[in-house]
Design a protein that fits this description.
This protein is α/β, with parallel strands linked by helices. Helices cover 24% and strands 30% of the residues. The relative contact order is 0.21. It binds inosinic acid and magnesium ion (MG).
């Protein structure tokens, strides 16, 4: 079972739900009367996106992007490849990039710069998890769910080698799972 590979639960389903509700309430206030377009960076943010969008009471459009920066390892290569671009024109939109985790920041830094070139009205970042210890790019999220320690985490959308995304909570993987 998946849970046999988990060293400890970092964030339970209840904690995630409570924090996502708070973020949704805050975003509903901040984006009232704006043209909110939530941009989810697949695949890691899919679970967070699905919960967060339903916690927002203001109108919101959604769109998806696929980038790859990681391969199957646990360290960022710094190389970002756009696998699927957005479908919606960004002119006049208030973009909220929804991410699973801000780690080195290399991926989001690249994406933010690319989207800024398309003249949106505004652009902000909402990340479920922030791992500031590993930051390389000069980038901060505008909305952070939780600040986490420098440990490799999985679940609630986050993977190791495409596994564990469907765990309903966020856990720390046993090191032996990825060091063998
Ligand atoms: P960055 O470019 O280093 O900020 O990498 C961000 C991406 O790396 C995230 O969207 C995740 O897909 C992946 N990532 C970084 N840290 C973790 C982790 O602890 N668990 C799972 N994926 C991670
Ligand atoms: Mg990943």
């Amino acid at each position: 079972m998946m849970k046999d590979d988990i060293k400890k639960v970092l964030l339970s389903e209840e904690e995630l739900h409570a924090r996502v509700s708070e973020l949704g309430a805050q975003l509903s206030r901040d984006y009232a009367g704006k043209n909110l377009l939530m941009v989810s960076v697949l695949k890691g943010s899919v679970v967070f996106m699905a919960d967060l969008m339903r916690a927002i009471s203001e109108p919101a459009e959604i769109d998806f992007m696929v980038v790859s920066s990681y391969g199957s390892g646990v360290k960022s290569s710094g190389v970002v490849k756009i696998v699927k671009d957005l479908d919606i024109n960004l002119q006049g939109k208030d973009i909220l990039i929804v991410e699973d985790i801000l780690d080195s920041g290399m991926t989001l830094d690249y994406i933010k710069g690319m989207l800024l070139d398309r003249n949106p009205s505004s652009i902000r970042i909402c990340t479920l998890l922030d791992k500031p210890a590993r930051r390389k790019a000069d980038l901060q999220a505008d909305y952070v769910g939780f600040t986490v320690p420098d440990e490799f985490v999985v679940g609630y959308g986050l993977d190791y080698d495409e596994r564990y995304r469907n765990l309903p909570y966020i856990g720390v993987l046993k090191p032996e799972v990825y060091s063998v």
